[in-house]
Amino acid sequence: IANSFTTKALTGKRVVITAGPTQENIDPVRYITNHSSGKMGFALAEAAVEEGAEVILISGPVSLATPDRVERINVVSAQDMLVACESVMPSDIFIAVAAVADFRPQVVAKQKLKKQPDNEQGLLLELVRNPDILATIAAREDRPFCVGFAAETENLLEYAEKKLKAKNLNLIVANDVSNPAIGFNSDDNMITLVDRELNTTRLALTSKAKIARRLMELITSYYLKETH
Ligand code: CTP
Ligand code: CA
């Protein structure tokens, strides 16, 4: 019989979730970013609270309200996001939903870049690679159970499986972002969860809130299987 003392599956567990885009500054007034809205990561944070977890949501710049009982840390760049993630380790589960910018300008100009006689033909912006936050967390000695998201426009499952292996993850969520009805700014989503044995579970097109609840249940049951 359910009562108010029922222990939820993730009671006492810490879940860290990254969400949203990152912003990489070019100069004081310009930056590079992407179309991530943060909706999926925020919905997962809410679902993790419902499983009883202590939830820390590390978010890039988005315009979303923080779900109840979620501790939110706001960051701007990929480097900031990595520092924030490391500062809340160890954790039991790490879910990387953020669309982290893969590259950032090599130098951030101190002053606004001006049009000059020497850039009449164009401007070459030198970019360097950002750290891979998920791979860095998954390589820790005290590594949490790690879940990644693979946003792809082609060869969805093939690329997702490669990322699962390359980053040494427990699970990866394959997300087809070529379809404008799902992914990024949409309220709906459709995903395929892939485990280390390459078993797949498809979650059909529905709201991000419903997908998040079902996905969090699946992540929880994989996590419990692995740790018991
Ligand atoms: N990720 C991350 N840090 C990065 C890049 C990606 O933590 N610097 C995480 C994302 O949050 C996601 C997963 O890695 O959970 C896969 O991200 P994705 O952009 O699909 O893959 P990449 O490894 O960056 O490869 P590519 O963009 O070249 O497909
Ligand atoms: Ca990427």
Can you walk me through this structure?
With 228 residues, this protein is α/β, with parallel strands linked by helices. It is built from 5 helices and 12 strands. The strands form 3 sheets. The chain has an 8-stranded mixed beta sheet with strand order 5-4-1-6-9-10-11-12, sandwiched between helices. Strand 11 and strand 12 form a beta hairpin. The longest helix has 20 residues. The structure holds cytidine-5'-triphosphate and calcium ion (CA). It catalyses: N-[(R)-4-phosphopantothenoyl]-L-cysteine + H(+) = (R)-4'-phosphopantetheine + CO2; (R)-4'-phosphopantothenate + L-cysteine + CTP = N-[(R)-4-phosphopantothenoyl]-L-cysteine + CMP + diphosphate + H(+). Pathway: Cofactor biosynthesis; coenzyme A biosynthesis; CoA from (R)-pantothenate: step 2/5; Cofactor biosynthesis; coenzyme A biosynthesis; CoA from (R)-pantothenate: step 3/5. One of its GO terms (cellular component) is phosphopantothenoylcysteine decarboxylase complex.
Question: How large is the count of helical segments?
Answer: 5
Secondary structural class:
alpha/beta
Overall shape = globular
SS strand fraction: 25-35%
At the first level of CATH, what is the class? Alpha Beta
The CA-CA distance between the termini, in Å, is 24 Å
- How many structural domains does the protein architecture include? 1
Give a count of the beta strands, DSSP E runs of length 2 or more. Answer: 12
Radius of gyration: 19 Å
Q: Secondary structure elements and their pairing?
A:
Layout: E1 14-19, E2 24-27, E3 30-32, H1 39-50, E4 54-59, E5 70-74, H2 78-87, E6 93-96, E7 103-105, E8 127-129, H3 133-138, E9 145-152, H4 156-166, E10 171-176, E11 188-195, E12 200-207, H5 208-227
Parallel strand pairs: 1-4, 1-6, 4-5, 6-9, 9-10
Antiparallel strand pairs: 2-3, 7-8, 10-11, 11-12
Helix pairs in contact: 1-5
The chain binds cytidine-5'-triphosphate and calcium ion.
